[in-house]
Amino acid sequence: MKKYIRYVVLLFVGIIFLLSSCNNEKKEDLFKYELSSDGSYWLISGYTSYLPNEITIPSSFRGKPVKEIKCKAFLDCQNLVEVEISDSVETIGKESFNGCLSLENIVFSKNVKTIESYAFSGDISLKTINLPDSLETIGMYAFSNCGLTEINISSSVTSIGIDAFEGNPIVYANIPAGATTSIGKSELKEVIINSSKNGEIGSLSNATKLEKVVLSNDIDTIYSSTFSNCTSLKQIIFSNKLKLIQGAAFSNCTSLEEITIPDSVESIGNYAFSNCTGLKNIYISNNVTSLSAGTFEGCTNLENFSFGNGVKVVDNDFFNGYENLTNVELGNSVESIGDYSFAGCKKLKTITIYKSLKTIGDLAFGGSTLTDIYYEGSESDWSKITIGLYNQQLNNVTFHYNCRF
Known about the structure:
The chain is mainly beta. The chain contains two helices and 31 strands.
């Protein structure tokens, strides 16, 4: 009896082993293989006459690892829906899955380093991808003209080819700075720039549906016109290490209502926020030492403005004609208020001034409705300030002396 039971068990184990071997053989038979030039690993170069909707790229074949999917291996494979790529694969070759119109899901190797050009181009059913932290290079047009609505690219990526994600209806993007020129922006609503390791922020100008921008803390410069004409932009979260905002960087961002420039910023270029007609509140960092009149030109709905403690001169015409301006705080470094600076500010009520102020230019407050000045110094200190012509409005103002701010 014991011998019989032992025989049955061995027979059962044998059948299971045989079935498993046949199954593995069938999986291996799905693909064509080529040996690498040094004979150390396999490349998958294509498939046999039969290919199911779902495939798994094997980790090994005949005792050697599979490390690469060769160019055009699955080109125009129309019935392919899901691909799982084993962790042994390091390279996905050119056009390897190009034109796979039904492809919906890709599970990438955790060790893939390179996705070559056009690898997944034209895969219109592909909506989302999760790229691994191992990835270093994305070739040009690699994911162009897919159906991607969301992308997450790790800061480990150091090279991204031109138009790698062009033609996608991307709504959300978490990407390194260098990827900004490679994505479609017609549907983009939110972008997180997670690193500047692979280059500077490219232009996202005219991304008219973009609502939110978040900049990582290693980004120190926003270049000219980067976000210009982003007419839906409502929120900017600046890097804590940002030093420079160049000219016209946010010009014509008409939905912006408030900006706070962090203390790390040292310079803001001319017209940087020009014609941002929705801006109501602006707070300048303490390290910005100068602002030109054009920086906020055309921000006609501005209500509250704080200069910070770095600016020394309020330029001529800085707020000339800003009819909605209500409250202004000058920093403790301001020495001069230029000609016509607040002329025509018909709703201006209060201004905060420090003892650093030495001169007020001609018509600086001409035609304004200023009612209250909060002054750090005494009445005697105020009398030492040189006041230019045609500032009669100052005679009707209520002064609050010896204020502590």
